[in-house]
Specification:
There is one protein chain. The protein is an all-alpha fold. It is 78% helix and 0% strand. It has eleven helices and no strands. It starts with a helix and ends with a helix.
Amino acid sequence: MLQTLLRFWPVFPLVFAAGLVDAIAGGGGLISLPAYMLVGLPPHQAIGTNKLSSALGTGVSTFRFARSGYVHLQTAVCAVPFALMGSWAGARLNLLISNQIFKMLLLVILPVTAVIVLRTRALDGDREPYGLRKTLVITAAVALGIGVYDGFYGPGTGTFLILLLTGVAHLSLRDANGLTKIINLTTNIVSLAVFLTAGQTLVPLGLAAGLCNIAGNYIGVNFFDKKGADIVRPMMLIVLTIFLCRTVLELIAG
């Protein structure tokens, strides 16, 4: 176990940085997933291990949101089963694709996701709310669709959920944030179970990295003001550029 942790030591500061980014502006998965691949993990194993560390960080933040009363129970109960089904389907689909093909897909998916997340601005969430039935139908559809995405890939899930829950379901920003945490925790746990069953998760590495992610989130929430977002874009761009260059070179060499 110690040898595994020493071999992959560069993951830890990057996953810690991902926690900071998540706390400041969201989108930490754009750093943490490439981090696992930069140290040599194949795509399936990188995603499976990233699910473990992300689930730990998301679990802590979800508990904090729920304790603060930011989770609307009826909406969450409706969304969770659909998030479960979507993430299971997405994770199973991921495992059907070879590592080589998935690397080529990442050359498209990762930059597109990064552009969407980096261009996202603060939301006011002040749209006229829908009735309960319409709200439940829309949030269930959002949970299912984003569940598939998170099970298959993952980075940017929180950002996409908030955009859709405020813009399409007309939830307040507070309710959208709370529901986002519940849905994201569900998709992380379910997809993690799929990757664990398939033997695509390095558990010691994921647990250790998860502690780094929790620490990054904690420090980010407690010590960074909004100006801290100024460091997010350069940090993401550096990690993404290194990752994309390495992936291109590996594909050329292969």
